Amino acid sequence: MTTQVPLFPPIPLAEWADTKDTLHRYAQIVGKVRLDQSPRRNHWWNVTFHVTGRGITTRPMGLDPTFAIDFDFVDHRLEVSSTTGDRLSFALPGLSVAAFYERLLASLAALGVTVSIRPVPYDLPDATPFADDNTHAAYDPFLVTRYWQVLSQVALVLEEFAGRTSAKTSPVHHFWHGFDLAVTRFSDRRVQHPQNVDPVTREAYSHEVISSGFWFGDANVPEPAFYGYTAPEPAGLTEEPLRPDTARWIDSRGAHLAMLRYDDARASRDPRATVLDFYESAYVAGATRAGWDLERVRWPQGP
User: Is the pTM of this model over 0.90?
Assistant: First the structure.
């Protein structure tokens, strides 16, 4: 008998921090393959993961052959499949990062795929090369499935929020850099970056943006949370009100994030409506201070 998954089930960071660290590195390895093999899109939209009915996917990439890599978080396997009809997979539980890296490269080679990636973590606390990382090997199947279930639920909330505007809007996608899920709205105003800004940031933030998303927690914010931010940050942003009352502005890398704790949303009378209201309040705060024309791009409700 199938057990119903409640909306926003508990996922305390402390319970799966070791598993999350391992899974994050798995995702970075596959994400770097995606970066190497996919056609470029503006704002790096080509490198992200997308949620599926069983996990997350790269979507098809490459030309000779065309292939995709899928994480199955129900049966806990990684699958590499080609448009030739060939398919290879292997189990995830018990694999160190080094073993995962070795098996993925072997699977790609067996399908005739050659990749060239920088085989070290990106912006993580340690820089141990993937091939040498036998430390990260924790994998709790129940909590990995729970991660995917939460990811799926939040993705649907973000899809609804994304549909409230006719402005240029990103897909709802899962970033392997920060291991967060996000959707971004853009204005038509370009941003002039200083010369010392790196090319990744320069492309991601080429225009004014307001992002809304969710992450599972990290060393700086050790709990899952919904977030929103405006970049570049306009003056007086943190003077704008947020909803609900439990939401707050926090400092983050020299700027500010609107944040709503996952557990506070879960405890509300209508968690889904609470999160949508939070995202709207953070968006209106940023758009108001940045001088966006809110009414011009507001998508009318209804069919």
Answer: yes
